[in-house]
Amino acid sequence: MFTIDLSEVHALAGHMLAHAEQTEPIAEQIVGKVAFDIEAAAKVLVPVDTGNLKNSIAADLNGLEATVTADTEYADYVEFGTSRMAAQPYMGPAFDLRSPDLESALAQLGEQCI
Q1: C-alpha 63, offset from chain centre
Q2: Do residues 97 and 11 touch, judged by C-beta distance below 8 A?
Q3: Cα separation of 36 and 21, whole Å?
Q4: Residue 81 region, left (φ>0) first, then alpha (ψ -120 to 50), else beta?
Q5: Do 68 and 75 contact (CB within 8 A), yes or no?
Q6: What is d(CA 104, CA 33) in angstroms, rounded to the nearest whole number?
Q7: pTM higher than the cut 0.70
């Protein structure tokens, strides 16, 4: 599981609070889109043997929070490796690929509030 650092978003919070009724639903859409983009990227990057790991990757949305997980017993072993197996990262690279989209979209939303 990876968490997005939203510290820059806190700087925009004051401006967004004044327009919360309009901006919160848009921010939720942005978070959701990026979460599903991370899910899609992870499914492209994950190594496939049986397809079980790929099929277990899913985004879960809850307002302004999103989690993208792989729900198998061995997901972490593939991502981080073991003493007997090299890492084959897929979640980290997917997150790195798509997280700038979140930062950019939320910054644009914040600028609209100023």
Answers
A1: 13
A2: no
A3: 24
A4: left
A5: no
A6: 13
A7: yes
Residue 4's closest CA among 65, 87, 58, 89? Answer: 65
Amino acid at 82: T
Max Cα-Cα span within the chain: 54
pLDDT in tens, the chain (114 residues): 666 666 666 666 666 666 667 778 888 898 999 999 999 999 999 999 999 999 999 999 998 899 999 999 999 999 999 999 999 999 999 999 998 888 888 888 777 765
Q: Are 12 and 102 in contact (CB under 8 A)?
A: no
